[in-house]
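Continuing the series of single-chain predictions for the mutant panel. This is the parent chain; the variants come on the following pages.
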Amino acid sequence: MELAELVGLRPSPGAGLLVTLTERCPLSCAHCSTSSTMRGGQPGSAELLRFVGSFGPDDRPELMLLTGGEPLLRPALAAALATTARAAGTRTALLSGMYFARQPRIPAGIRAAVRALDHFSASIDVFHEREVPRAEVFRALREILDAGVPISLHATGSGPEDPYLAGLTADVRRAFGADCPMLVNELRSVGRAAAWAEAGRTPAPDGRPLPCAMAAWPVVAPDGAVLACCNQDTVDRRPAPPHLLLGTIDRDDWPTVRRRALDSPALRMLRAVGPGHLYARYGDPADCTGYCAGCRALPAHPEVLAATERAGRGPVGALLDLHATRTGRAAGPAALVRRFGSPRYAELVHGVGESGPDGLAVGEPVGGAR
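Parent structure:
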């Protein structure tokens, strides 16, 4: 499974499941969005295996993404979940901070977990490289690729003009050719970075429809709650906003969670038009103080939430949701990255080849200026 296929599934409700294997992490990256330490919590192994074991050939996610913290602190569990998921037809990807790459060879237990995967992705940025040097990450990725597992990099830079990103993409091309596509994001003021990074300049919602693809895949949080959104503030918030809580892995199974995600009138409308449009249509646009913040705050505006749920019920709500899904899928994975990641580097989701889609040499950011 290649990165572009993985990202291309993102707008489809229920096509993926994000699983937080642990909040723990042995690294101390200054920008960590989850503020992970070795004292973090994690869901129970038995509960996770039972939940993933409820996938069936006719009712399963296409993809399960294992994340953290550092999911490879639980390599045996990662392998068991991937094996269980594959029996139902679900493929598994994993995102790692690469702490193990500091060793000369990938440890046997981690190597076994990686070989059970359909895709392996490594986080890399200037902060990770202070903990695990680039050369060691590349060496481990080469070992994984040679074992037959497709790879990618999740990179973060300070912005489109960051020379770190230009240098990194050039190094990736030299080391891997087109065999290591990249998902490039820009630094955000969340997690540990909230204490020092400049807040983003994302404009407030203006009332126009702006569908939310991030409400498409359920997310298993460290405490076993299943949320409808991967936004870190949403995953961490307790009590969770009721319209974004889909269940818990100790009481619910995948078919139940998936049905709730697909049938929820509020989630249908959030995926179809986004929170800003809902406030503009059913309440006061000034109450939507931000895209994600406005979504989380819907229960505090019962008139907006009630009208949203009325609009999302029945065949009309289902049709709006389907239209947004088809539109997002048709736009392709690079379009999704342009919106949620770094627009300049969006085409690298397809691979870091000799040249980009517009004839640009790779290492030159897609979109123009160096």
